[in-house]
Amino acid sequence: MIDHSKHIKIYTGSLIAVHHLKTLLEEIGVSSLVQNDVEGGVITGMADFVEIYILDEDLDKAKPIIDKFLKIQESDK
Q1: Distant-in-sequence, close-in-space partners of 29: CB < 8 Å, separation ≥ 6
Q2: pLDDT of residue 47
Q3: Phi first, then psi: what are they for 34, rounded to 5°?
Q4: Domain for residue 55, yes or no?
Q5: How many structural domains compose the chain?
Q6: Which listed residue, 23, 57, 61, 67, has the most CB atoms within 10 A of its CB?
Q7: How does pLDDT run along the chain (77 residues), one tens digit per residue?
């Protein structure tokens, strides 16, 4: 389980989308954690319930990437 005291959830979505966002964040030097309860053995019945977290201290650096990513996700719906 993720220590939520230092991390913040920035997105919940499909495994593919979360891994794409993770890659974008890595390109700017921001590490992230992915929590996927489906792969961890907990069956939730929701394939799009993968979460990605970053450290609180990285939010300012990551915000432009997150905002752009979310805008693209919204336009794809």
Answers
A1: 61
A2: 60
A3: -110, 130
A4: yes
A5: 1
A6: 61
A7: 555 679 999 999 998 999 999 999 999 999 999 998 755 555 555 566 899 999 999 999 999 999 999 999 988 76
SS3 53: strand
Residue 58 lies in a domain: yes
CATH number at residue 57: 3.30.70
| Domain carrying residue 60 | 7-66
* DSSP letter, residue 73: H
Q: How far is CA 53 from the centre of its chain?
A: 5
CA distances from 44 to 18, 36, 40, 48 (A): 17, 10, 11, 10
Write out the H or E segment, with its range, that includes residue 12.
Answer: strand 7-13
User: Hunting for tokens 């650096």 — which residue is that?
Assistant: 61
